[in-house]
């Protein structure tokens, strides 16, 4: 397998007695209302490693039948564990204090929303589920293997345009997921999901919330469904309209013929949300011509969470109609908060904090609804995030933070669903240690094209205020204007591309039409904190050359390669991190996956963790193999769970589905995750897990390398501090063994250059 274990040590596991007053406050979650905490002080939490006792201190009866218990999974997209506090998230804080806090939970790598959406759906990693979202590609393209054009569920106010799937496809869209599921013969997910399992047992289900992420939970469309773009089934559309509810505006585009939907004249657009507040800066025009590009205004305090009204609408549909009238036994509610505002403004920003408070109010409304329907004492709440979140930035030694002078007026756009929009009068200020990042964006297709590869990422000419400004105001890639349209396809288009300086300039990297991809061409699915690289020819020399570039560029971190290419020095096989799937190897699975470089010792706006990202102009990102992205939030409370407990054993997002299935009296034998018995009052097993930690490295490091500083995309400026020219990977793992089975959890993976 080509790996070496650097170190291995067992955890010292010991049982501690549960908090003796647990029952007194066990159900205090149902009086924790929005905006206030009505829970008595709980004292010190008890750390629970593995031993399981019931409230009397006796061992539970593992033979007792597990009667189905209503369970609601609520996903807080991008919630970092260190964001949970009594001020910003009082309702969630109360749940954590009186319920179970899983202090060592792990997101599935790559730490993307849809990747973890599939883990929540199936309890599995890509090696089992075969799913590679957020954005992935489906090679080989050609006349005999082109995905039929399908609609988009987000047409922005007009009938959906076609998605041709020539370029990598972003999967946060129910129409895209439907098209892909049809393309894969109903097997977009290769194993039976939690929702399909529940429905097969006759249980009523509901999924609510974020486009794509909610839909992938119930691809078979067997339950009630409301997201930002549609309502299913058609009968629920009729019911909601008859009851006077508005529908998501795009619902009308998903039905036709006898099922056509006509919106009421008063319907409006209840799930629309404003774009981010930006300001214009000429800092990237190195020639002083006044060419401006947009930068996110992280000092804005006017917008809050732009999706606040949309989330409140969807929660109200669930709380006031679906919950009381359908009483689903299994529900998943997934809102894009706080992730959306973290992306836009960065963790720790004023609007990101407003997003936390917005999401916590939705939790309070859910708790109130359960109490109003007398379901509080019989319902489990599982609160989980799909991943953590990091600030986008390169090393501060190369790219110092900069102040932003706040706007003294409100943004110039019209309000959108209660939120401000448009451009502010903020301005970039001087270098400041308490400022904001203007670095971290990396366009892999551009870097590779400059080095002679034929590389494509599906996007045309782009600009970003996050490509990097050095202390002396030198931009890493200056902004230019394509005055005649020869590079970008439209005159006067702005762009930033080092490949535009080639003898044959390139600034747009859309994928060639099916059948015309150059020999040994590379298609990149740019995903944020990690990039996917597809080499349809599977030429080993091309892959080796690609890997060398990634190893020498310091923006890139740990590199994982399909096992078909053998052992490449300094890399680990994708199979080592559960990313190889035989059924998708030539049709969806990347050939190379790389995490961008991260650093959890650097803080911006008081929040630790920075990382490079695929070019996108974001202030916050996830998807990397860094600790701030991997270690996410998991909290549970309700009649099936222990109280006032901290589970310090490693757990993961893949464990949520099998655990919830157990609470419903069901099993998911194909899941990669485990039932977290040590958190339950009535577990099937009381055996004590053992945990061992280790660090895995490749058998051989890559040698003879010359490392290139991020400040110079041409590669001409070398890092003189790294003289040995070696590259390897440290992959930190925890192996938990219980009941004869070992479950592996990944803490991080990082590149080590010397």
- What is Rg? 25 Å
Classify the oligomer. single chain
Compute the number of helices: 14
Q: Which parts are unreliable, with pLDDT below 50 for 5 consecutive residues or more?
A: 6-65
Mean pLDDT over the full residue set: 91
**Percent range of helical residues:** 10-25%
Overall outline: globular
Distance between the termini: 24 Å
Give the strand order, joined by hyphens, for the main sheet.
Answer: 2-35-4-34-16-3-15-10-11-12
Specify the biggest β-sheet. Answer: 10 strands, mixed
Residue share in β-strands: 15-25%
Structural class: alpha/beta
In short:
This protein has 754 residues and is an alpha/beta fold. Helix 8 packs parallel to helix 10 and helix 9 runs antiparallel to helix 10 (350-372).
Question: How would you describe what is shown here?
Answer:
The chain is α/β, with parallel strands linked by helices and 754 residues long. It is built from 14 helices and 39 strands. Helices cover 18% and strands 22% of the residues. Residues 6-65 have low confidence and may be disordered. It is globular and about 70 Å long. The two termini are 24 Å apart. Strand 24 (522-526) and strand 25 (530-534) form a beta hairpin. Helix 9 (339-345) runs antiparallel to helix 10.
Give the helix/strand layout.
Blueprint: E1 3-10, H1 22-25, E2 46-48, E3 70-76, H2 90-98, E4 100-102, E5 105-106, H3 113-122, H4 126-129, E6 135-136, E7 150-151, E8 162-163, E9 169-170, H5 174-183, H6 194-200, E10 205-209, E11 224-227, E12 231-232, H7 234-242, E13 278-281, E14 293-296, H8 308-326, E15 330-335, H9 339-345, H10 350-372, E16 379-384, E17 390-392, E18 402-405, E19 427-431, E20 441-442, H11 444-450, E21 455-456, E22 480-482, E23 493-495, E24 522-526, E25 530-534, H12 540-552, E26 556-561, E27 572-573, E28 592-596, E29 598-604, E30 607-611, E31 613-614, E32 620-621, H13 627-630, E33 631-632, E34 634-637, E35 645-647, E36 651-652, H14 656-663, E37 690-698, E38 727-738, E39 741-753
Parallel strand pairs: 2-35, 3-15, 3-16, 4-35, 5-36, 10-11, 10-15, 17-30, 20-31, 21-24, 26-27
Antiparallel strand pairs: 1-37, 4-34, 5-33, 6-9, 7-8, 11-12, 13-14, 16-34, 17-32, 18-19, 22-23, 24-25, 25-28, 26-28, 29-30, 37-38, 38-39
């Amino acid at each position: 397998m080509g790996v070496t274990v650097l170190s291995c040590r067992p955890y010292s596991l010991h049982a501690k007695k549960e908090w003796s007053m647990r029952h007194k406050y066990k159900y205090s979650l149902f009086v924790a209302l929005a905006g206030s905490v009505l829970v008595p002080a709980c004292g010190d939490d008890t750390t629970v490693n593995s031993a399981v006792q019931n409230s009397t201190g006796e061992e539970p009866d593992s033979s007792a039948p597990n009667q189905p218990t209503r369970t609601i999974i609520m996903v807080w997209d991008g919630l970092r564990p260190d964001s949970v506090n009594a001020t910003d998230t009082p309702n969630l804080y109360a749940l954590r204090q009186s319920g179970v806090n899983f202090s060592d939970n792990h997101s599935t790598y790559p730490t993307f929303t849809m990747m973890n959406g599939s883990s929540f759906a199936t309890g599995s990693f890509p090696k089992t589920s075969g799913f590679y979202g957020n954005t992935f590609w489906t090679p080989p393209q050609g006349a005999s293997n082109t995905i039929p054009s399908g609609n988009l569920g987000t047409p922005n106010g007009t009938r959906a345009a076609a998605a041709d799937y020539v370029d990598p496809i972003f999967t946060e869209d129910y129409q895209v997921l439907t098209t892909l599921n049809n393309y894969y013969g109903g097997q977009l997910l290769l194993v039976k999901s939690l929702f399909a399992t529940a429905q097969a047992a006759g249980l009523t289900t509901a999924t609510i919330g974020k486009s794509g992420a909610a839909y992938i939970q119930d691809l078979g469309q067997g339950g009630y469904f409301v997201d930002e773009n549609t309502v299913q089934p058609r009968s629920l559309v009729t019911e909601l309209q008859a009851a006077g509810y508005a529908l998501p505006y795009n619902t009308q585009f998903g039905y036709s013929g006898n099922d056509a939907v006509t919106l009421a004249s008063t319907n409006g657009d209840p799930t629309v949300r404003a774009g981010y507040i930006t300001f214009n800066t000429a800092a990237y025009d190195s020639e002083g011509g006044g060419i401006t590009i947009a930068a996110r205004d992280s000092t804005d305090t006017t917008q809050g969470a732009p999706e606040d009204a949309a989330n409140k609408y969807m929660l109200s549909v669930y709380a006031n109609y679906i919950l009381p009238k359908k009483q689903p036994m299994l529900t998943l509610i997934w809102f894009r908060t706080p992730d959306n505002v973290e992306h836009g403004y960065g963790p720790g920003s004023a609007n990101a904090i407003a997003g936390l408070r917005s999401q916590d109010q939705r939790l309070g409304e859910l708790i109130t609804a359960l109490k109003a329907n007398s379901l509080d004492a019989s319902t489990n709440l599982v609160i989980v995030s799909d991943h953590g979140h990091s600030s986008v930035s390169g090393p501060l030694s190369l790219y110092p933070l900069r102040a932003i002078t706040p706007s003294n007026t409100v943004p110039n756009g019209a309000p959108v669903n209660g939120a401000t929009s448009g451009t502010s009068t903020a301005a970039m200020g001087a270098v400041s240690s308490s400022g904001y990042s203007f670095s971290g964006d990396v366009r892999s297709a551009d870097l590779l094209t400059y080095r002679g590869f034929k590389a494509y990422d599906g996007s045309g000419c782009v600009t970003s205020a996050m490509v990097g400004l050095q202390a002396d105001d030198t931009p890493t890639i200056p902004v230019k204007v394509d005055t005649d349209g020869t590079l970008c396809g439209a005159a006067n288009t702005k762009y930033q591309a080092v490949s535009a300086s080639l003898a044959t300039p390139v600034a747009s990297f859309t994928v060639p039409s099916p059948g015309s991809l150059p020999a040994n061409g590379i298609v990149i699915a740019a995903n944020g904190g990690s990039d996917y690289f597809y080499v349809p020819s599977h030429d080993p020399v091309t892959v080796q050359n690609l890997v060398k570039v990634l190893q020498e560029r310091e923006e890139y971190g740990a590199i994982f390669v399909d096992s078909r290419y053998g052992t490449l020095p300094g890399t680990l096989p994708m199979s080592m991190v559960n990313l190889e799937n035989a059924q998708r190897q030539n049709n969806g699975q990347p050939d190379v996956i790389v995490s961008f470089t991260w650093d959890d010792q650097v803080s911006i706006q008081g929040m630790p963790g920075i990382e490079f990202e695929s070019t996108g102009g974001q202030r916050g990102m996830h998807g990397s193999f860094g600790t701030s992205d991997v270690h996410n939030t998991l909290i549970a409370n309700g009649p099936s769970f222990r109280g006032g407990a901290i589970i310090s054993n490693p757990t993961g997002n893949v464990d949520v589905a099998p655990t919830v299935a157990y609470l419903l009296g069901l099993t998911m034998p194909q899941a990669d995750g485990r039932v977290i018995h040590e958190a339950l009052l009535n577990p099937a097993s009381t055996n004590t897990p053992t945990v061992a930690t280790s660090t895995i490295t490749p058998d051989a490091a890559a040698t003879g390398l010359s490392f290139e500083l991020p400040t110079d995309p041409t590669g001409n400026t070398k890092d003189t501090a790294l003289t040995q020219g070696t590259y390897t990977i440290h992959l930190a793992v925890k192996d938990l063994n219980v009941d004869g089975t070992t479950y592996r959890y990944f803490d991080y993976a990082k590149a080590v250059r010397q």
